[in-house]
Design goal:
The protein has about 190 residues and is mainly beta. Helix content is about 5%, strand content about 50%.
Length: about 190
């Protein structure tokens, strides 16, 4: 597949991974990134540290980029700040329309969907799947509760206007015990 539809930008660099990939933060080095490309013969890994030269390899290509002091996940439709505690991963199925997934503590998962026609999200009930209960909603978000494998889970959809007639949906889900930190990660991503 080659390059993918999401890249990481910041600290004067743009990291363009090769599929299948994941970005991980290095422990003790908050701005350093480990890029892992999982291949049939085993993973290929590159470590990127801002300000240090990077040799081209099979995991990632690096170019000059924006100088802001944080990492941003960039796609063709949205740029999101990379929240601490989450790693960025490509979908494993090449036909998956989601450009990337953020995996976090306690099985937390955050991912963008769409954009979709705005009318599809006009009724909060349209975002409630069978077995889910609507906890709260407003013009910008819908929060839900449901059971997954006998455990209480939380899901939220943040609605982001896109153009004049479409909406981008940022979905988060996790065990209900991790709802607070996952909600904070979504807020960080949208700053």
């Amino acid at each position: 597949m080659g390059h993918v539809f999401a890249r990481l930008a910041g600290h004067g660099m743009v990291l363009m991974p090769h599929w299948p990939y994941r970005f991980e933060r290095l422990a003790g080095e908050p701005h350093a990134v480990r890029v892992v490309r999982d291949l049939p013969d085993g993973p290929v890994t590159a470590v990127v540290r801002p300000g240090e030269p990077v040799e081209p390899d099979e995991a990632v290509d690096v170019a000059d980029g924006p100088a802001h002091d944080h990492w941003e996940i960039q796609t063709s439709v949205v740029d999101l700040r990379w929240p601490v505690g989450f790693h960025v991963a490509a979908p494993l199925d090449g036909s998956d329309p989601v450009p990337f997934y953020l995996h976090g503590p306690g099985e937390a998962l955050i991912f963008p969907q769409g954009p979709v026609p705005r009318e599809r999200c006009a009724d909060p009930g349209s975002l409630v799947a069978p077995g889910q209960t609507l906890l709260r909603h407003d013009e910008q978000s819908v929060e839900l509760a449901y059971e997954h494998e006998g455990e209480p889970w939380w899901q939220a959809h943040r609605l982001i206007p896109y153009g004049s007639d479409r909406t981008l949906i940022l979905t988060a889900q996790c065990p209900r015990t991790h709802a607070g930190p996952t909600r904070e990660a979504v807020d960080t991503a949208l700053t």
